[in-house]
Amino acid sequence: MTEHKPTSPLSMPLWQYWRGLSGWNFYFLAKFALLWTGYLNFHALENLVFAAYLLFPLPNLRLHRLRHWVGLPIGFTLFWHDTWLPGLDSIISQGSQVAGFSWDYILDLTARFINWQMVGAAFVLLVAWLFISQWVRITVLVVAALIWLNVLTVSGPVIALTPGGNTAPAAVTTAITSGDTNTPQVGDIPAQTAPASSQNLTAWLNSFYASEAKRQTQFPASLPMDAQPFELLVINICSLAWSDMEATGLTSHPLWSHFDILFKEFNSATSYSGPAAIRLLRASCGQSSHKNLYSPAGNQCYLFDNLAALGFSQHLMLDHDGVFGDFLKEIRQYGGVQSPLMNQNGLPTNLLSFDNSPIYDDTAVLQRWLSEEGRDPNTRSATFFNLLPLHDGNHFPGISKTADYKVRAQKLFDQLDNFLTELEKSGRKVMVVVAPEHGGALKGDKMQVSGLRDIPSPSITHVPVGVKFIGMKAPHQGSPIEISQPSSYLAISELVARSVDGKNFVADQVDWNALTSNLPQTAPVSENANAVVIQYQGKPWVRLGGGDWVPYPQ
Fold it and tell me: Strand order in 549-551's β-sheet?
């Protein structure tokens, strides 16, 4: 009898190594296709290691099968990691809020994740793979592509792998030292002269926050004897960005021509309601990181506290109950608003929220403010009003389907425009500031489906901010004064500080240029708990979960 010696894996023919990937070839080919179209953030080294795991020769058939079963959860996790979908930390942190969504809204969100064009492309790719694999050993091409991608990314994520202009900004010929990155430009925005790399982008972000920590609005210690009392009304609207208005054709609505001042390049710095309201209420200090929002700030940072020190009474209005996401609790604890919530008894319900809680009619809420909160026009007051009718998932009573955004926005704009007109007829002196929290992600992009705001993309955080002075002796004439410099909440606080003596309301002639020129500028930096988006050398960059910076897919 001939003795059969066990075969060593290393003595196997080379072609048998390639059997390790088998059906996984389609998995990698699908990833390559998504990478090329910009729908994937491909982690080349992790995918190469996974391919090596699948390729490692195993002579035992049971071990071979076990490897593929173990590879299924690994492959799924790696695929999720390569997408722009929210990470585990984000899902856990938002889990309690998702649990509050109505089932109809959850189903609506789930349906948005199905991209039928991509499903069709995947089917075509599958048929092509099944056909070509009969003559061509696809595994060789897959491994070669993975090695090639790792060679391309050996210098870091600044090399774009997708078509369509996602290339990194050209490196400048003169490198700068770390100290130079802290040099402020006009508007106290740190210089962006270093080549775009993960290290330099992180250094710039750190210098931005260091610079912002030194900035604050200087309010007067006291008002002059001839100061004129007026009311400040800050209207904080959820889910409204320039991109949403462009998508619905509402950029030319009369409301926006009603303002005296219109910020065209305002950055909300976040894409969630609680952090946005806190940032607005802390407008008197420079922009802080997301983490520092949930730590105490100095009294000089709270806009309404600065006004209270000058004799302004505080008021709080919501057109919702403020329970979802602990919104009311957060603005009290971290925004410094301690005044009681305006009475909501008897207010008519306009919509039902995504968690089926009532959203009250905003005209009714504003009419109640007119009759109760501002009863005496000769007193100083500051009111914070948060509105929710445009939030994704809101629906009309008795109808489970999400109400059309344009219909809701048209009605809200009409209501606000009519309210401003009514105020003008009342003879009251009111400074109205309309500052949205963030956009509604109405269109979505390659990183996020419509309605998803886990990443504070430029289209979500670029919001319209308008200011109107009601009851002036010499009101502004003509089109709104447009502020085109990069701005954020500090500019609002500065505008309030310049107007706090109320003299503009009784002046025979207002120096609008002095009022609006040299307002604080702020670089477009936006941050949530697990994502940061910045504009660097004119291009958007994103960092997820503390990883490397990559160009934001356009």
Answer: 525-527, 531-536, 539-544, 549-551
Say how far apart CA 100 and CA 354 lie, in whole Å. 8
- CB 209 within 8 Å of CB 293: no
Of the ranges 37-46, 64-73, 422-431, which is most confident? 422-431
3-state helix, strand, coil in the chain (%, to 5): 40, 15, 45
DSSP code of 182? G
Q: CB-hemisphere CA count at 13 Å for 210?
A: 12
Q: How far apart are CA 258 and CA 480, in angstroms?
A: 7
Question: Can you tell me the mean pLDDT for 359-374?
Answer: 89
Q: Amino acid identity, residue 405?
A: Y
pLDDT digits (tens, 9 = 90+) for 218-269: 999 999 999 999 999 999 999 999 999 999 999 999 999 999 999 999 999 9
**CA 420 to CA 36: how far, in whole Å?**
49
CA dihedral over 234, 239, 240, 242, signed as positive or negative: positive
The helix (run of H) or strand (run of E) holding residue 434 is strand 430-434
Nearest residue to 450 (alpha-carbon basis) of 80, 113, 116? 113
* Helix residue ranges per DSSP H, 22-99: 24-37, 44-55, 61-82, 88-98
